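Hi,

Apologies if this is the wrong queue. I'm a grad student, and the batch job for Phosphoribosylaminoimidazole carboxylase ATPase subunit from Gloeomargarita lithophora Alchichica-D10 produced an output file that my downstream script rejects. I'm not sure whether the problem is my script or the file. Here is the sequence I used:
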Amino acid sequence: MVKTRRHGYDGLGTRVIHTPADLTALWQAWPVPSVLAETYVPFVQELALVAVRHPAGTIATYPISRTHQANQVCRWVFAPAPLPDGVIQQIQLHTHTLLTALDYQGLLATEWFYLSNGTVLLNEIAPRTHNSGHYTLDACVTSQFHQHLRAVTAQPLGSTALTSPGVLMVNLLGYETATSDYALPRQQLAQWGRVYWYGKNQSRPGRKLGHINLLNVQPHQVTAWVDRVEALWSGGLSKANLIQ
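Support response: The file is valid. Your script probably expects a header line. Output copied below for reference.
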């Protein structure tokens, strides 16, 4: 796996290298002086944990979520991720250690690879509110945004407890180049959950334009709900249009 050292996000700045020819093509496509090269990790699932640390050292963590990417762009997030207790403890312990070692203040999102042998690897950290934590807006006592403000202003941290047994966040990804505000599909989606629109003035394939939070979703219902949301959102276009 090869990554640019700067400006990489949502599928930009990363490339899987299979052959020397792929590397040659990469240098032609990326006019950068240096890159990062990492061993490719054949993970089973991708997970995320949003945590917050108070200036006094108190740490609170939100429920671990499962995230699903396509073409390296997040399509959906489900919480709480159904995981063995040992995996949950691993992720929480490593996150606590990281926050303490950094003497961190505020919200930090961590993303993890869950491997077939039951271990986890830290893949990415984001020192801010994060897409994987948007579910907290409707499914937790305190949202990630309020929590971050509490931490950076040294106010007592709020509860991170879930208020729904299961929550699904589906990103509303661009599937065309346009300047529409997509008012009609947004209104239609609102029958199922809370829709958040980011007010971006241009759409392009794969761009995050908003998201919807659906409450009381069970793990076995995730795929059906994602398909239903994406079909309404894209007007029946194929999933490939949403994630190219």
